[in-house]
Amino acid sequence: MSHNRKEQAHMKTGRDSMDSGSHNKRCSVASPEATKKPDFKTWGKSRSLRLPDFDYASPWIVYHVNIRSKDKKRIFRSSSINEKVVEVLKSSVDLYGYHLLSYCLMPDHLHILVQAGESPKNLESFVRGFKSYNSKLAKQHLWQRGFYERILRKEESLADVAQYILDNPVRKRIVEDSEQFKWCELLVEDFGNDSSQKRPSSQE
After folding, report:
1. How many helices and strands in the chain, by DSSP H and E?
2. Which CATH superfamily is domain 12-27+58-193 in?
3. Cα 143 from Cα 127, distance rounded (Å)
4. pLDDT tens for residues 149-184?
């Protein structure tokens, strides 16, 4: 599959539902209709980590999750560690009933865009299981306690949030173009606007 930006399927904005180098199925999801830079940050503001009355096992919800490294150290600069992190992430989403839409593994944190499936486990259980198995494989503590999440509203553009995630290494001046960064990936080709809240189309 080509990774050229111009060959990407068009991204609709509605929805109800470290090493630089090449990486399979990594791509950009530019949203040309955006007129200003949205604020998609998941930390750095005074906020509660979890919404007290929200059911984090609800189906079809989309989350932007951010997980910091242990003591904010730049742990994820080794290909051997990063490959295991990505492998465990992809297996964990299936195990806990989620769909991975995009991710970006930075030297000291991880961004994930996930959508809950029809019968997902609690989001906290998913993240805890992912972090625990990662650390077990690496034989060291990789992650800080807890995590930050932002629940995407139905009217928000998944394409814009995915682009924000993929552009992290560009904003940090690690690379000039997100396609040059090995540890970012987009796993859907059409976010769609299906009111039945079905899963976005996966890439072949």
Report:
1. 4, 7
2. Transposase IS200-like (3.30.70.1290)
3. 11
4. 999 998 899 999 999 999 999 998 998 888 889 999
Q: Which two tokens stand for residue 124?
A: 């906290």
Distance from C-alpha of 120 to C-alpha of 188, rounded to nearest angstrom: 19
Q: Which two tokens stand for residue 33?
A: 């209709």
The Cα–Cα gap between 8 and 75 comes to 32
Strand order through the sheet with 62-68: 148-151, 62-68, 109-116, 98-106, 184-186
pLDDT of residue 18: 42
Burial 57-72 (b: 16+ CB within 10 A, else e): beebbbbbbbbbbeee
Angle between helices 79-95 and 123-138 (to 10 degrees): 150
d(CA 160, CA 165): 9
Q: CA-CA distance, 59 to 36, in Å (whole number)?
A: 30
Domain ranges of the chain: 12-27+58-193
- Interatomic CA distance for residues 62 and 40, integer angstroms: 13
Give dist(CA 143, CA 67) in Å, integer: 7
Element spanning 161, H or E? helix 158-166
Tell me the pLDDT tens digit for each residue of 104-145.
Answer: 999 999 999 999 999 999 999 999 999 999 888 888 899 999
